[in-house]
Amino acid sequence: MNQFLNILKYAKPYKSYAIGHIISNILFALFSTISMIAIKPMLDVIFKQKKDAIIIKPVYQGISKLGKYLENQLVYQMHEYTGGDNSKALIFVVGLIVVAFLLKNLFGYLANYFMVFLRNGVVRDLRNAVYKKTVELPLSYFSEQKKGDIMARVTNDVSTLQYSMLPVLELIIREPLTIIFTIIAMLYLSPSLTLFVFIFIPITGLIISRIGKSLKRKSDRVQKEQGVILSTLEETLTGLRIIKGFNAEEKFDTRFQESSNRFYNFSNKLLNRQNLASPASEVLGICVIAVLLWYGGQLVLNEGSSGGLNGSSFLVYMGLAYYILTPAKAISRGLYNIKQGDAAAERIQEIIDTPNPLKDKENAIVKTGFDTEIVFNNISFKYENEYVLKNFSLTIPKGKTIALVGQSGSGKSTIANLITRFYDVNKGSILIDNIDIRNLTTSSLRSQLGIVTQDAILFNDSIKNNLKLGKDNATDEEVIEALKVANAWEFVKDLPEGINTNIGDSGNKLSGGQKQRLSIARAVLKSPPIMVLDEATSALDTESERLVQVALENMMKNRTSIVIAHRLSTIQNADEIVVLNKGEIVEQGKHTELIAKKGIYKKLVDMQSFE
């Protein structure tokens, strides 16, 4: 139930729809009861209950006798209108019933009309909140999560709420009020008979709640398995080339089928438990009706005695008693749905409530430019247990190009992750213009940086929109100029739609070299003062590397650059080369100086591999 209350918080922006929904439901519940009670005067006319009665104008005698007053007022008005003609009286009562049912359905429609905006608004805001938080969370969070599971939470779990927990919003007012108004009418008709209802309803409620206790656990298993299915599918689509190349189709097919079979079994158990709700509540309800039929029949047979009941009142009472089953069943289904939706809400809330360790500080500084230098001040960092950088110190003056080289695992790419604040250092500090980057707003820090990674990450969109990611207001001329600097215009101009050409999923319509040059063009268009190149040419063939290298040299002119190097061609002209080994600086200097030292750098050059 706590999770249900958490979801209700998202209904606050839709107060006007909620008020309209509540008012419509109150009137729906009222006219639902009136439409049933209106049958009694018709039965009185048919059974001629009031044939010999003297009709006088009733007098209001207080709230305790309001029911009797309203009934007598109706009889009096009907008599005034019909002049005692039973045929006209029958038409009058039938008209009253039609109007009552018409108003009931009108307000029922209005309640649903308002609920559409309320429910869909909550779902939209909830889905947006989960996505926004997903984008805000640091990379470290996703290294411990399956992408498929997160996708399942944003899609399937939100949909589960839409079709299980949120429809309960419709029941909060309508069904309880319908039951209350109906019970008031039943109390008026026969207090002693209504006592049976109060005895049996708690008993039936207890039995139904027992059936639903395991629903949350079963639902949680289903939703987790949906995450496994989506994760397997996402990995299959991403790695299809490798799966086929290693003849691993059968292995992945088996993995998917195993997950699919678990989902099948869990779903069967969950749905069969759900399906038990309606028949269980109906059987229990009909048992209550059977008892009322027996006891009410006794009261009708003793009509003349104290506490007796006339035939028309008994029939209306039984109609009300059966009528009360519909909202009671709806409430029992709602409780089941809350149990099922509770698991989905918990999984969604888990993402929303996850703390973001990289959140901007209060009064964080907005940096608008880069003036002097970048300083890595004795920093140490670890992803898990072992430090991958130890006591690392480096100063990079403005306008200089610094190259980081070393074997795999030496900590080169970690420097790129730390300067961009994808992670925070464990010890020490990183300063830009003598300001700790943790004191800057993340957006203003990253606006000073351009990033080109080893894997050219592009999106299923046009070339122009991919480049405008860092500068949304760029003109077509600026886009073309950036493409020329990145040595990419030569192939873009020959494409069918030029810069408006869609490059496909992850840019798969292009070659590796073309994708990398577009990544460089994107960084050029952003035009930041600091460039971070993380092994930007390592995945390219010789021809593509030559073209990309020219693009990189164009881009780095008059900029401060941190180059994480894989090949000699990328770094030999750097102002300073820093050689890393196991997270520590072991050599530092220009290319010729380091070659002369005949140390680790010389060995790496001889091997032509800065891994």
Key features of this structure:
four-stranded antiparallel beta sheet; Rossmann fold; elongated; 2 domains; 62% helix; ABC transporter transmembrane region fold; alpha/beta
The first-level CATH class of the largest domain is given as Mainly Alpha
Beta-strand share of residues: 5-15%
Strand order of the largest sheet: 6-7-8-3-9-10
Q: Distance N terminus to C terminus?
A: 54 Å
Shape: elongated
- Range of helix content: 55-70%
> Describe the biggest sheet?
6 strands, mixed
What is the CATH architecture descriptor of the largest domain? Up-down Bundle
How many helical elements? 25
Radius of gyration: 37 Å
Query: How many discrete domains?
Result: 2
Protein structure class: alpha/beta
Oligomer: single chain
Write out the CATH superfamily name of the largest domain.
ABC transporter type 1, transmembrane domain
User: Remind me, CATH topology of the largest domain?
Assistant: ABC transporter transmembrane region fold
Low-confidence stretches: none
Mean pLDDT: 79
Number of strands: 10
Question: Could you characterize the architecture of this molecule?
Answer:
This protein has a 6-stranded mixed beta sheet, sandwiched between helices. A 4-stranded antiparallel beta sheet has the order 2-1-4-5, with helices on one face. It has 611 residues and is an alpha/beta fold. It has 2 domains: 2-351, ABC transporter transmembrane region fold (Up-down Bundle); 373-607, P-loop containing nucleotide triphosphate hydrolases (Rossmann fold, 3-Layer(aba) Sandwich). The protein has helices at 2-8, 15-37, 39-47, 66-82, 86-136, 139-142, 147-165, 168-189, 191-212, 215-238, 240-245, 249-275, 277-301, 311-323, 325-352, 412-419, 442-447, 463-467, 476-485, 489-492, 512-526, 542-556, 568-571, 591-597, 600-607, and strands at 373-382, 387-397, 401-405, 427-432, 435-436, 449-452, 530-534, 560-564, 576-581, 584-589. The protein has 25 helices and 10 strands.
